[in-house]
């Protein structure tokens, strides 16, 4: 356990030293950390750090228990002394390793931010240089850009007119759909009325048939 913790601490210290000095090895380390922070890497790192923190808190709790017994009894046996020293060393090493891991993460973040800002500044400088070159002797390029802008503005106007036409078509289609819906509702009402009239006529025919049948029966009697 102690060998693993010491190895981890020395590895973290080596990474911090690599971050401090600008060498090709630092680029490789930064690329490795960039890949580590993608996908499932952050989840794995957080899980390992959480496990290490829990083990550290367990060592601290055991150390506090031994210290409480020492306060109650007033003396510690050699076994408790060895255990107390072991727990103290474990907690110190794990806490120091977590602190170094946090330092590595922050250094990596700051170095990335610095690289991004440098690239942004270089891009701005290149744009300014291009602008100055074009301003000094690039009248043709300015004319070409103006022609491209005029062409783009014409295309924008054409697209706006097409959009207006499509909007009008959509509105007309919507109005036609509403009119057809109202017309279909009128047809349904007319159909219901015709069904009702048909039913009334059938009822009237049935009543007339009954009357005729009754009159015929009276005649025969």
TrEMBL record:
Cellular-component GO terms for this entry: endoplasmic reticulum membrane
PANTHER family xrefs: BCR-ASSOCIATED PROTEIN, BAP (PTHR12701), ENDOPLASMIC RETICULUM TRANSMEMBRANE PROTEIN (PTHR12701:SF18)
Coiled-coil regions, chain positions: 142-218
Protein family according to the UniProt entry: Belongs to the BCAP29/BCAP31 family.
Subcellular location: Endoplasmic reticulum membrane
InterPro entries: BAP29/BAP31
Descriptive protein name: Endoplasmic reticulum transmembrane protein
UniProtKB keywords: Apoptosis, Coiled coil, Endoplasmic reticulum, ER-Golgi transport, Membrane, Protein transport, Transmembrane, Transmembrane helix, Transport
Membrane topology per record: Multi-pass membrane protein
Membrane-spanning segments: 6-23, 44-64, 84-104
The protein's role, per its UniProt record: May play a role in anterograde transport of membrane proteins from the endoplasmic reticulum to the Golgi.
An annotated GO BP: protein localization to endoplasmic reticulum exit site
């Amino acid at each position: 356990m102690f060998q693993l913790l010491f190895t981890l601490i020395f590895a973290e210290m080596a990474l911090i030293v690599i971050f401090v000095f600008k060498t090709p090895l630092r680029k490789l380390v930064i690329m490795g950390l960039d890949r580590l922070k993608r996908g499932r890497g952050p989840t794995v790192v957080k899980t390992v750090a959480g496990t290490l923190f829990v083990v550290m808190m367990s060592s601290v709790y055991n150390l506090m228990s031994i210290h409480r017994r020492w306060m109650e009894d007033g003396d510690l046996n050699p076994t408790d002394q060895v255990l107390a020293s072991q727990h103290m060393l474990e907690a110190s090493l794990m806490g120091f390793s977590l602190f170094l891991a946090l330092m590595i993460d922050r250094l990596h973040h700051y170095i990335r931010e610095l690289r991004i800002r440098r690239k942004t500044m270089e891009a701005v400088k290149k744009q300014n240089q291009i602008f100055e070159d074009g301003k000094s002797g690039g009248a043709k390029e300015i004319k070409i850009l103006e022609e491209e802008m005029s062409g783009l503005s014409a295309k924008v106007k054409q697209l706006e007119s097409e959009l207006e036409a499509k909007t009008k078509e959509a509105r007309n289609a919507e109005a036609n759909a509403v009119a057809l819906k109202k017309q279909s509702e009128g047809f349904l009402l007319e159909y219901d009325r015709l069904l009702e009239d048909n039913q009334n006529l059938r009822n009237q025919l049935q009543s007339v048939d009954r009357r005729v049948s009754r009159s015929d029966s009276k005649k025969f009697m």
